[in-house]
Amino acid sequence: MAGPWMIYGANGYTGRLIAQEALERGHKPILAGRSRDAVEQMATALGLEWRAFGLQDEVALARAIRGIDLVVHCAGPFVHTSAPMVRACLRTKAHYVDITGEIPVFQNTFAHDEQARSSGVALLSGAGFDVVPSDCLARHVASRCPEASRLGIFIAGGERTSAGTTRSIIEFLPTGGLARRAGTLMPHPLGHGGKTVRFHDRERHVIPIPWGDLETAYRSTGIGDITTYMALPPGADVLLRLFGGSLQRALRSDRFRNAAARLAGDLARPPDAGERRTGRSHFYARAKNARGHTVEAWLEAPEAYGLTAATAVRSAERILAMQPKGALTPSMAFGADFILDIPGVRRYDELPGGGPGTTEDEEA
Length: 364
Prior knowledge:
Layout: E1 5-8, H1 13-24, E2 30-33, H2 36-46, E3 50-52, H3 58-65, E4 70-73, H4 78-92, E5 95-98, H5 103-111, H6 113-119, E6 122-124, H7 132-143, E7 148-156, H8 163-172, E8 177-181, E9 184-188, E10 195-198, E11 203-208, H9 213-221, E12 225-231, H10 236-251, H11 254-267, H12 273-278, E13 280-289, E14 294-302, H13 304-322, E15 326-328, H14 330-334, E16 346-348
Parallel strand pairs: 1-2, 1-4, 2-3, 4-5, 5-6, 6-15, 7-12
Antiparallel strand pairs: 7-13, 8-9, 10-11, 11-12, 13-14, 14-16
Helix pairs in contact: 1-13, 3-4, 4-5, 7-9, 8-11
């Protein structure tokens, strides 16, 4: 590693997993966050250096990370926390990595591409479960489908989420569904376009959701029509069609949204160590060109939070070793095979017994 690096938001659920992964790989990151007591207690237990600071005062923020070569930013919801950290990293010439899945955050990160290049640093949003595996798989199928014009990305993750993840989900629900058409993000009604697809292990029901790949896969592959899907229990699309509009309108109220986020955060139960050890996540991508040629691939990976810890630390390692520049997606920075470096990840270009993942078109 080139020099000192930091995990900000280290005392959160995912930040702790990333810190532990870093230690297991022989690193000694500086732990940081807004809560002095929580960060100090954690750092003392792990034998690591620590710093406590907030994000509101950007002069103080830049001073707090000066001398740091790279920041892994884990404090969400990222729509509120990412922008000041990105600006501080650009100001101090530190590489920036986060684990967001929030589309506005990706948009802001990519908007700083030119400044990042001139500053000689990399900005990498989505270095976790969203979007490393799906971005790498999308690039893999696109590279094997000349002039691909449509891309479907299908994700089956864990059922349990941390408080931070839950609050982030509530933050973007008011925007409703989205899909990319002819290179432009377009509204898509929640709950519409559900279908059954075959992942590598079994069939699942999926519905379109506004996943981060709507931004990242567009840049990684150049494909203009992209729909991203999440596996949800049968009937979830019906509920979204019936109540999604009312929920969106309610969540546009700051007061209601903040109350919902607090309640959901209190009720959230992330996976425990046993669930992280045994859980699996699954991905499927399908690229198609105007001549009807279709390329598919499947990915099987560890549980989402454990996977995030592994990909975030390896992203930091690669950036410090390779010194890329600009606002990048994971596959742009490290290639489509980056995800295969993670223990327990397997990629398949065909299903057992043959056959496609779906015979339906990606258009929702």
